[in-house]
Amino acid sequence: MSMDFFFAPSFHLPIEFIILFQQFWVFYTAYAFLYFLFLAPKRKKLYSIPLLLICVSGSYSFTLLYVFVYNKLYEPVVFTQQQIIFTVTQVTTQFFIPAIGYFFVVKFFMKQEKVKELEQQKLILQKELLQSENNFLRAQINPHFLYNCLNFFYSETFQQRPDVAEAIMLLSQMMRYSLTDFSATRGLANLEDEIEHIQNVVQLNKFRFSDKIPVSLKIEGNTEHKKIVPMLLMTLVENIFKHADLKDAASKAEITCTIDEKEKKLIFTTVNKKNPVIAGVSQGLGISNIRQRLVLLYNSDKGLQTINEGNLFKVQLTIPYFEPEQTLHK
């Protein structure tokens, strides 16, 4: 059975439209079949099976429509079922093959685009690291002089004002930790040290306000022998002291750090009452910076969730922690 009847020498507009639509149908459903089979996420790969059936059944339906229109409008011709199936197979194959070629061309350009995107992310990360190094060098301007001054203030105030001396010691510990060169620890910080740094920040702020600010810090789980990206949690804590309403003793700001050893994840949650004055002008730069860091570090910011309801603001950050022998970039 040849395809002469399907490409009649005389031009008939309805017939040409049917043929054209059948070609488009086979081409694009075949491409969709290949896309879901090879490029779609695992949970969507099963969509390829109905798409293949749609491709073939659609081609078959267009062939039947062609036969019907041709018999009604032009000349009656009898086609056997075998001839129709042969024609469907031939047409489907003819336009399935170009769809395969088109698929691989698209796949090639998608791969090139992904490589370009990864290179751009690498350049951004290198720029961020260079900026961090520059900031670190600027912060290192004679740090020993600052430590010596703080130690002097501590020794001078220890007898007369032990509360002030303790605050000075906390400030000294915070500065020392902030200037830590984490490249020596493969880009990661001890979770215990991060938590201690957060505790120092909370305690120092309580000293500032005579222990009257309603902020609680709760640690759930074992923090030993675990490492995380440094200073990622600190931004959320700083946001509380910048944007929360800490004058209302009845609305306590809560900081919770939960270590899930089964999933090897850390869940860091902050809940606070919003300051109505600051909330109206805040640009959310802290949250935005965290999202950017998460994308650079984990290729996704899905681990950060914010809930803004009524006068309460909640942030939950879920990130993996690392074992002592792991590095940030393998």
Main sheet: strands, sense, barrel: 5 strands, mixed
Structural category: alpha+beta
Question: What's the overall geometry?
Answer: elongated
Count of individual beta strands: 7
Low-confidence stretches: 1-5
Approximate helicity band: 55-70%
The fraction of residues assigned to DSSP E strands is 5-15%
Order of helices and strands: HHHHHEHEEHEEHHEE
Which strand order do you get reading across the main beta sheet?
A: 2-4-5-7-6
Radius of gyration: 33 Å
Distance between the termini: 61 Å
Mean pLDDT: 83
Number of helices: 9
Report a brief summary of the structure.
The chain is α+β, with helices and mostly antiparallel strands and 330 residues long. Helices cover 57% and strands 13% of the residues. The chain has helices at residues 13-38, 48-73, 81-139, 143-157, 162-178, 191-208, 234-243, 276-279, 285-298; strands spanning 189-190, 215-220, 227-228, 253-260, 265-273, 304-309, 312-320.
